[in-house]
Predict the 3D structure of the following.
Amino acid sequence: MKKEADPSISQFMDEKIIKRLKGYRGIALIFLVIVTIEVISGFFNPFIALLGILAGVVLGILSNRIFHLHWDEESEQVISNVDRLGVVILILYFIVAIYRRFFLEGYFEGVPLLILTLSIIAGTMIGRLLTTIVIVRRILRRVGL
């Protein structure tokens, strides 16, 4: 394939990846709006909200290994699948997600715990979204697109 002036990377991505990215974006936006409203209303500390988002971004970057992205010559698209290491990471990710509340409950309770959890989830979605885009662009550069 020839390199176009400014091709959209979505045309080279499998539909499942595009839907996953839209989901990450939607969840992140909804939770960021909620966290922002709570911070502006004075119910939550902006510094802790930012720390939660940053911690979530790191978690999102690390958890993005769940899906192995690669170029498929036949379909000429970036596709994803889950490999063995991805399954292990997925299990660890679910354990952290389930027990996150228990890790944080000693420090926060009630609404602050909820807002911190939403901050972390929003950050996780942002981290996964950004990492996926970076990996897809890297794959497209490698195949000459």
User: Anything to note?
Assistant: Residues 111-142 form the longest helix (32 residues). The helical segments are 15-40, 46-63, 84-104, 111-142. The chain has four helices and two strands. Strands lie at 68-72, 77-81.
